């Protein structure tokens, strides 16, 4: 009689799941990849949200109500993300959601929020989240297409038109690689050679040797995130390749410089103003915001700031300001106000949304940075 | 020519990493027929502990020693509190226990350490050595040398010491080993301690090349397991050769075939080798007890 | 009463009772979704259990077949204009074919060598799903259109609850019947001793291959449901970790116990949901629970409890 004994247990556990606490607070959901292959994105995102929700509550909350943050960790698994999305909607009854660390998780969760008519502000990079525009879906990070365009514009300025790509086979690397290939012809860039590497590979010299041996290549672009780009950069110097190397916004944290070491010198990448907070001109509209965020984050966590946490800050603040303007937490009203976000100064840039632009950033939000002597410098 | 040499350097670098992980699998398999899926976490613990003690101001050589001791303690605890109580269960049950242990250790590491990537400075100079246009990092040679030294020590231990022989006897036939007066429990425990030590040393040696983070163990365990099987599980020489072959396969596949499908090519070759040699390259002849 | 309890279909009867009564206590669509996921994974686990628990062969690549089933119902309607039910059946057929082709050579391997060969097979599929972005959407995955029969499309967690539950029951009954058939007895003989089975005239190679194909079809069907249920599919479905999870479900629930596969699947699907309140300590708790179950209930949850109750 095997099954008998377990019926009770199964039901008991199922019931236990539902024992959520009753609370008068307004709930804000966040499904983030706090663990797993994207944890170095999800971890600062979670810390940022927790930090600032506490801060907002300490200052009296929003519309007279306190926010309660409900964070679930999807481990970068789209299936888990979908389940947690259902849970946020059905059980926690959240008024909005800031999250989806990865594109895959966001794409899997979108239908749940669209059906429930709850605003979702994604923290993932790929352009397909906001193209085509979906009524309830927004996002804060610059798209990977913009990163490609920014890099290509810089290449054109330096009169470099033939490049090689070496990209990660993870979701971020693959998506950005596709965008770069798509926009290269318009930008007048030709891609002479392509290589890739796995997200956990520890040596990329074979791929780089092939690139080195390719005649006519004038620069190398590396769409990727995590430790891969750091190893690419080291191997690049190990092989003594002298061509300019471009990294992506996926490595936009001080940690990249630590990992790549002296090899990082001369590497260029597009990134948000956040990374060069102190170096911005005093009249730069973003300066007060990014300096304040940097100080708060580094003080509370003891870790260097990254643009990923910044995306979470932008998402949270866009929601909070929209809710204040709406004067309520009604889903439809908040959504309308998010769409009307104008001149919002965030860590990622100045956001101007519209019914056909649910990101609201343009290329000016990206700064071209160059690593010099272990620090960031702005390329003019 | 330069290309071939460079691909070989790359293959040896990566292969030496796999070889060190595979060696750890071998030892525990030899003493109790278990594939220890927490072996990758031993590697992680070695690297991460050294990094964090280093950050706390402990001189790196000392930090590395602490890391090895700590990992050995974890290995012994794994044996004492998880493997030993389940003695007599089937191999697959013990494997699930090691998987549980690996999830637990990864979970503990993300709380105790952090979720970011870390590195260690290379042991001897960071400048690449150039030979005929190809470049290899001195640290790669350190890792290779480490694999060979561990292999020799292990061989000497197993073949030349009584304790080593007791371990082999335990693996071959536990009941017979007990009958001749071997403390088989201690023998298995010892194999966990040594495997943990090998894992920790591997983690410390490879961190300057491959970087480390709390979840580095999963992929290393996967590749190390494949390397150990390719070489023939239970054979220490096989583990090292299997690791190097796997690394070279990946490098040549990336260089000559397709970098996108390099892992696929490597596993395809493993499949073909196993079909031709069902006991791996250096595996012992099958002994089936009826 | 004794007679009923000992009947071979008793587990199926008990599980149907659970399935019918459960909706009385499920408060929202979220619970229906979790329950449907349990049935989906239980179906795959029952198939794998036939291979592991009865034929004694370990597969670390079974999620690969889930991937075939999942991508069949994603790619079929999107790229080939197939109706979703045809893609569903086609996926199962394709899985059977692949299992037949792959199984013939690799099932000659034994023990851990078979494990690493199946692991390699699963990885090859996962790499292909991830790299062939034109068809699969790459690592970000692709959307899956709704399941439709005769123009009616299935939507909502409740509908999927009943469909997956019914499919799981059918799969469980088929498995229970197979186990009690002469084939099943031959399989168990292989598990106990291949040499003895061979002496008794069992065609071991054919038996192993047959059960490998059957278990692949179970996984493929489960994969298709998984894709429909999520509406979006990523290469993770066929990843190494997913394969390990399936093996863990089988062993935790009990090798050779069909009801055990349901319990194992329920445990590993629901634990991450219940442990969220532990936040950072979630993974430590999950690892500890897995270890504790295996140490204290070594034959698996269901067989150990059944034995304890039988003795009482």
Tell me what you see in this structure.
Chain A is built from 12 helices and 14 strands. Chain A is an alpha/beta fold. Chain A folds into 2 domains: 191 residues, Rossmann fold (3-Layer(aba) Sandwich), CATH 3.40.50; 128 residues, Response regulator (Rossmann fold), CATH 3.40.50.2300. In chain A, β3, α4 and β4 form a beta-alpha-beta unit. The longest helix of chain A is centred in the N-terminal third of the chain and has 20 residues. The N terminus of chain A is likely disordered. By secondary structure, chain B is mostly helical. Chain B contains 11 helices and 2 strands, in the order ααααββααααααα. In chain B, α2 packs across α8, α6 crosses α8 and α10 packs across α11. Chain B is globular. Chain C is built from 15 helices and 4 strands. Chain C has a two-stranded antiparallel sheet with strand order 1-4. A two-stranded antiparallel ribbon of chain C has the order 2-3. In chain C, a hairpin with a 2-residue loop joins β2 and β3. The longest helix of chain C has 27 residues. Chain C is globular, with a radius of gyration of 19 Å. Chains in contact: A-B, A-C, B-C. At the A-C interface, α1, β2, α3, α4 and α6 of A face α2, α3, β4, α13 and α15 of C.
Task: Summarize this entry quickly.
The complex is a heterotrimer of chains A (380), B (290) and C (312). Chain B is mainly alpha-helical and 290 residues long.
- What name is given to the CATH topology of the largest domain in chain A? Rossmann fold
Indicate the radius of gyration of chain C in whole angstroms. Answer: 19 Å
Reading side by side through the largest sheet of chain C, how are the strands ordered?
A: 1-4
**Biggest sheet of chain C, in brief?**
2 strands, antiparallel
CATH fold-level label of chain C: ABC transporter involved in vitamin B12 uptake, BtuC
> SS-based structural class of chain C?
mainly alpha
Mass-distribution shape of chain A = globular
User: What would you say the CATH architecture of the largest domain in chain A is?
Assistant: 3-Layer(aba) Sandwich
The strands making up the biggest β-sheet of chain A line up spatially as 2-1-3-4-5
The CATH superfamily label of the largest domain in chain A reads: Response regulator
Total tally of structural domains of chain C: 1
């Amino acid at each position: 009689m095997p099954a008998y004994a377990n019926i009770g247990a199964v039901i008991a556990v199922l019931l236990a799941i539902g024992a959520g606490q009753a609370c008068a607070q307004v709930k804000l959901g966040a499904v983030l990849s706090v663990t797993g292959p994207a944890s170095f994105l999800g971890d600062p995102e979670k810390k940022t949200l927790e930090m600032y929700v506490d801060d907002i509550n300490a200052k009296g909350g929003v519309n007279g109500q306190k926010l309660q943050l409900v964070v679930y960790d999807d481990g970068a698994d789209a299936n888990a993300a979908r389940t947690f999305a259902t849970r946020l909607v059905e059980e926690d009854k959240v008024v909005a959601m800031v999250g989806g660390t990865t594109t895959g998780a966001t794409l899997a969760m979108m239908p749940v929020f669209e059906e429930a008519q709850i605003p979702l502000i994604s923290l993932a990079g790929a352009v397909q989240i906001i193209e085509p525009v979906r009524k309830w879906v927004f996002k804060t990070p610059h798209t990977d297409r913009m990163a490609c365009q920014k890099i290509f514009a810089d290449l054109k300025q330096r009169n470099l038109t033939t490049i090689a790509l070496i990209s990660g086979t993870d979701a971020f690397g693959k998506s950005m690689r596709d965008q770069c290939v798509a926009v290269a012809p318009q930008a007048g860039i030709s891609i002479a050679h392509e290589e890739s590497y796995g997200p956990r590979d520890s040596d990329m010299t074979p791929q780089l040797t092939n690139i080195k041996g390719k005649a006519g290549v004038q620069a190398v672009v590396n769409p990727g995130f995590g430790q891969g780009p750091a190893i690419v950069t080291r191997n690049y110097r190990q092989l003594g390749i002298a061509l300019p190397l471009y990294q992506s916004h996926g490595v936009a944290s001080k940690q990249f410089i630590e990992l790549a070491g002296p090899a990082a010198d001369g590497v260029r990448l597009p990134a948000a103003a956040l990374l060069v907070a102190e170096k911005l001109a005093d009249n730069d509209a973003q300066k007060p915001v990014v300096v304040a965020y940097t100080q708060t984050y580094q003080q509370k966590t003891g870790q260097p700031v990254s643009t990923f946490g910044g995306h979470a800050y932008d998402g949270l603040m866009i929601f909070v300001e929209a809710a204040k303007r709406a004067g309520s937490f009604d889903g439809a009203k908040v959504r309308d106000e998010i769409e009307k976000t104008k001149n919002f100064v965030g860590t990622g840039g100045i956001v101007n949304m519209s019914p056909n632009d649910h990101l609201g950033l343009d290329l000016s939000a990206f700064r071209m940075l160059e690593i010099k002597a272990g620090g960031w410098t702005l390329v003019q | 020519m330069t290309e071939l040499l460079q691909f070989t350097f790359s293959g040896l670098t990566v292969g030496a990493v796999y070889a060190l992980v595979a060696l750890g699998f071998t030892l525990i398999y030899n003493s109790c027929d278990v594939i220890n899926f927490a072996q990758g976490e031993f590697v992680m613990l070695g690297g991460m502990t050294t990094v964090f003690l280093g950050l706390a101001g402990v001189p790196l050589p000392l930090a590395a020693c602490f890391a090895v001791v700590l990992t050995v303690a974890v290995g012994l605890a794994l044996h004492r509190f998880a493997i030993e109580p389940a003695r007599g269960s089937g191999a697959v049950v013990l494997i699930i226990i090691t998987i549980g242990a690996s999830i637990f250790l990864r979970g503990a590491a993300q709380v105790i350490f952090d979720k970011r990537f870390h590195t260690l400075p290379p042991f001897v100079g960071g400048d690449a050595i150039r030979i005929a246009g190809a470049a290899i990092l001195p640290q790669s040679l350190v890792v290779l040398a480490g694999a060979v030294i561990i292999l020799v020590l292990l061989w000497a231990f197993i073949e030349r010491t009584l304790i080593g022989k007791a371990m082999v006897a335990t693996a071959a036939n536990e009941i017979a080993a007990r009958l001749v007066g071997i403390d088989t429990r201690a023998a298995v425990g010892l194999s966990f301690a040594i495997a943990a030590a090998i894992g920790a040393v591997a983690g410390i040696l490879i961190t300057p090349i491959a970087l480390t983070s709390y979840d580095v163990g999963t992929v290393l365990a996967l590749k190390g397991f494949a390397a150990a099987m390719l070489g023939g599980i239970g054979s220490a020489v096989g583990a090292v050769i299997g690791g190097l072959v796997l690394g070279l396969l990946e490098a040549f596949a990336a260089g000559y075939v397709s970098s996108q499908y390099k892992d696929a090519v490597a596993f395809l070759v493993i499949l073909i080798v196993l079909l031709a040699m069902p006991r791996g390259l250096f595996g012992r002849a099958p002994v089936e007890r009826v | 009463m004794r007679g009923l309890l000992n009947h071979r279909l008793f587990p199926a009867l008990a599980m149907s009772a659970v399935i019918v009564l459960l909706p009385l206590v499920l408060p929202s669509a979220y619970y229906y979704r979790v329950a449907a996921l349990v049935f989906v994974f239980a179906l795959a686990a029952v198939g794998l259990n036939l291979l592991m628990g009865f034929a004694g062969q370990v597969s670390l690549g079974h999620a690969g077949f889930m991937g075939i089933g999942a991508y069949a119902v994603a790619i079929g309607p999107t790229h080939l204009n197939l109706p979703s039910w045809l893609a569903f059946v086609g996926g199962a057929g394709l899985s059977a074919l692949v299992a037949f082709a792959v199984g013939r050579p690799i099932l000659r391997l034994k023990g851990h060598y078979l494990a690493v060969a199946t692991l390699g097979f699963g990885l090859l599929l996962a790499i292909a799903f991830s790299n062939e972005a034109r068809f699969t959407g790459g690592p970000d995955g692709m959307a899956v259109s709704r399941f439709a029969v005769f123009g009616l499309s299935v939507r909502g967690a409740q509908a999927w609850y009943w469909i997956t539950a019914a499919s799981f029951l059918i799969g469980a009954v088929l498995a229970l019947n197979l186990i009690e058939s002469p084939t099943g007895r031959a399989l168990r003989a292989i598990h106990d001793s291949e040499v003895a089975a061979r002496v008794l005239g069992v065609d071991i190679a054919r038996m192993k291959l047959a059960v490998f194909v059957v278990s692949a079809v179970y996984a493929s069907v489960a994969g298709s449901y998984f894709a429909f249920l999520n509406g979006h599919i990523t290469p993770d479905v066929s990843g190494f970790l997913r394969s390990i999870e399936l093996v863990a479900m089988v062993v935790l629930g009990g090798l050779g116990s069909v009801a055990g596969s349901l319990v194992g699947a329920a445990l590993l699907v629901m634990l991450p949901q219940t442990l969220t309140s532990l936040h950072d300590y979630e993974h430590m708790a999950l690892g500890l629970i897995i270890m504790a179950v295996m140490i204290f209930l070594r034959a698996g949850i269901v067989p150990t409890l059944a034995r304890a109750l039988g003795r009482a």
